[in-house]
Design brief:
The protein is of the alpha/beta class. Helix content is 28%, strand content 14%. The two termini are 22 Å apart.
């Protein structure tokens, strides 16, 4: 798995460390923005919201290039209520039909890289138990609404998750 390193500015403040063995969730997001977003641009957006640095652990652009984000050994800021237990990947684009910024479906390259990253992470972090969309956090853990409710990762990417799970299961012998 080829992951491109990004030279992010130093975090704005100290982040909370965690053990990799705490990670049980592989959570899929969409950036809900334009197709030209970059990891450094996303980092700047997240810092402007008061975060220490980019909230995701990985970003996948439209060509399928996987970029690193927040280090795995610190708590991310991408899935409210499940940050300590999750590794988070966001695909560049807005995959929610009907949204004003809708960009169309994820590219084949994005899906292939997402599957490869999922396989890599499940093999590297054996404590991962589930692959879910960001919207699943609300329904699986918090009753389906409130601060946890979201349309992320958009309907078109969300529809791909069963196939992504199947690919991970076949490559990693997990269910």
């Amino acid at each position: 798995m080829n992951i491109v390193h990004v030279d992010y500015p130093a975090p704005a403040f100290a982040m909370t460390p965690r053990a990799i063995s705490q990670i049980t969730d592989f959570i899929i997001h969409h950036e809900a923005g334009s197709l030209t977003e970059t990891p450094l641009g996303i980092d700047a957006q997240h810092r402007a919201e008061g975060w220490a640095m980019i909230g995701y652990n990985y970003i996948i652009d439209t060509k399928g290039v996987v970029y690193d984000g927040r280090p795995l050994d610190v708590v991310p800021s991408a899935a409210y209520g499940r940050n300590t237990q999750s590794v988070n990947v966001s695909l560049v684009g807005n995959f929610e039909k009907g949204d004003p910024g809708f960009t169309g479906p994820p590219t084949d390259e994005q899906i292939a890289s997402l599957e490869a990253l999922g396989v890599y992470l499940h093999k590297t972090i054996p404590s991962i138990e589930r692959t879910i969309g960001h919207r699943d956090v609300a329904t699986l853990f918090y009753g389906g609404d409130g601060d946890y409710a979201t349309a992320c990762p958009g309907s078109l990417l969300y529809a791909e998750i069963p196939l992504i799970r199947a690919k991970i299961a076949s490559e990693c012998n997990v269910h």
